Amino acid sequence: MNYEILIPERTICRPGALREIGTIMAQDRAGQRFSGKVFIISSSFLTVYVERAAASLTAAGYTTKVGSYVDIEPEVATIDDLTAEAREFGAGIVVGIGGGSVLDTAKAVALMLGNEGSVRKFLMDERAFGMFEKRGVYCVCVPTTAGTGSEATPCSVIKNLEAKVKPNMLHQFLLADLALLDPELLLTLPKPLVASTGFDALTHAVESYVSVWSNPITRMYSTMAIKLISGNLEKFVTSDDLEAAGALLAGSNLAGTAMNAATGMAHGIGQAVGAVYGIAHGDAMAVFLPVSMELNLDYAEKAYAEVATALGVAAAGRPDREVARQGIAEVRRLAAAVGVKQSLRELGVTSEERFPEVLQSVRDTIKEPYCNPRPLSDELVMTALRKALG
């Protein structure tokens, strides 16, 4: 048995954590190694949280600067421009407050502050392992959605508009030094966004569990993530329950850690669909998670039965295949209950015309060996797309 687990140095989960960010960082030994200039990366619609963080940081003796806002998925130019801003400011700490795109940006900028050149050269090249000469500056990630788990992953997804792909930059130096999970930040989210990002997190948990790279540690994280997300997503979508919000954030974070085992078909295809059609990632996951479970079932029957059990399906005395199929049905039931779309057609895709572009994007971004239980052939990709079209 061989495996390696990469996790952030420190994770804190409690209501009000953002209000304490200055005190927390000032007491963190890792953070004390870097300068007191904090470069904040966020989105234009999250200014109230930026102001909350800046007030806490200023009170703790830090100097802050807010970078240009990240309102869409980061591109190469986004990372390069923000790195230049942060470098000119003399930033020794980068704080990202936002969804996955913001956190991916913050991690990449923090790392690039310790390295020279454009981020472009670190993309799509044997996962970029071993390519970075130096660590970056201290990085804090504060998620405002329960979805990507980016605060727990050594990965940043950076969009390449010209190639219509979303290549990963993957390296242990991309791990956040500190992850702050504040359930209060989820209370103002639009419920459709909660549902969409929740399915992203659930897909991370399910796909990492059935991954051919899974191991006892990642499966432990995956199992608890599935339980927390599936058990609280519907509850939070239909209420403002703070405890449910905390459970979703914790589940998303655990699913991010479980991605040490990587993800599979749903992400490989869904990410390409997002690049070609501009479909939100969580919406694509809600469509492709049950499709991938159905198409992979013959290759991971026992694993999917165990996933179904984590989803709450009764398994005692029943064949694995029957339990697994009920698990797929439960995923579809949950999708309907929280109101996410369940086909590409519902998301505005009316024909197969651009499916070859999606296939090419999958080819460009998926490298062998791949961790999906079933080999991801061109034929399988097209079958999944057609099933997802609806």
Description of the molecule:
The protein is an alpha/beta fold and 390 residues long. It folds into two domains: 10-186, 3-Layer(aba) Sandwich (Rossmann fold), CATH 3.40.50.1970; 191-389, Up-down Bundle (Dehydroquinate synthase-like, alpha domain), CATH 1.20.1090. It is 48% helix and 9% strand. It is built from 13 helices and eight strands. The chain has a six-stranded parallel β-sheet, with helices on both faces. Helix 3 (76-89) crosses helix 4 and helix 5 (191-210) runs antiparallel to helix 6 (216-237). The chain starts with 9 loop residues before the first strand and ends with a helix.
The domain tally reads 2
Strand order of the largest sheet: 1-8-5-4-2-3
User: Which regions contain 5 or more consecutive residues with pLDDT less than 50?
Assistant: none
Topology pattern, helix = H, strand = E: EHEHEHEHEEEEHHHHHHHHH
- First-to-last CA distance: 41 Å
How many whole angstroms does the radius of gyration measure?
A: 20 Å
The counted number of beta strands is 8
Q: Structural class, from secondary structure content?
A: alpha/beta
| Main beta-sheet annotation | 6 strands, parallel
> CATH homologous superfamily of the largest domain - what is it?
Dehydroquinate synthase-like - alpha domain
